[in-house]
Amino acid sequence: MKLLILNSGHCLSLALAREVSRRADMELVIEQDTTITAAQLHEIAPDAVVIPPLAQPLNMTPAEVGAHADAVDRCLEACLAQSVPLVWCVSDQLYEDGFDEPIDEHVVPTPRDECLRRLVATGDRIRAAHHRHLIIRLGPLFALEGSHAWLNEMLDSLVTGQSVRAAEDIVCCPTSVDAVAMALVGMLQQQACGANAWGAYHLAGTEPVSVFTFSSMVRTQLATHLEGRGEQIELGEVTALNHHHDAKLRRVLNCRRVLDVFGVHQKPWRLEVGRMLDAWCLTRDGQQDASTGESV
């Protein structure tokens, strides 16, 4: 099976590359650009095209969001021309105002923000025009490398003593990019074997948590890892922000359908953060060893 993923520097692209490299039954082609033409698709002949998400479209300029939507529209046209399945990953921020209850897949986002409405319109076109599509709505992604990775920027700020500002009144389900990559590979493999289960799916981490609590737990785990290594670093603080004074805004995705259809389980974000911090420490050791070797 051959996958084509766009936007080579995106954290999801890098995670998919790692996941596919461990398998002998898959091939991954990564394009640096954020869109593709029908001619390129004809030449590459992939079994599916994967478009990584804008992680925080609410924090981006209208021009950036519009450019992403235009790129997805062009990908849709190319995929239709070549009869190639399209996988588009989108942020949970499309559910701008959240819901009191976990959000099911059949609930199409109806945001007030004009930029978000532009993304929803693109999703409507995909659903109407292309039967073989997957729209994967994701919780906030975290990873150690790549764009839109969140965790790497947080760690860099903390270890250099900078404060991390995090919303205390927004509840979400932080999502490991490695878990998303593993799930996408499994889902597409089942589709290639005839599952024919196209449509919208939700994929997020377990345990809804405020952005402030998540960031604070990252800081706590980081301090534990550093202390275990014998490092004494004055970490930056996590400071709380409040945007919604009347009640907490909840963006909690119900991921029951992806479990029922594909057998994909959500990954606990605490365990995923711990695993990534282990990897971060190993990388840090390697960098320190290289620095010591250069100075000898």
UniProtKB/TrEMBL annotation:
Q: Which organism is it from?
A: Halomonas citrativorans
Which Pfam families does the annotation name?
Answer: RmlD_sub_bind
Where on the tree of life does the source sit, at the highest rank?
Bacteria
Per UniProt, residues of the RmlD-like substrate binding domain are 66-279
Return the protein name. Answer: Sugar nucleotide-binding protein
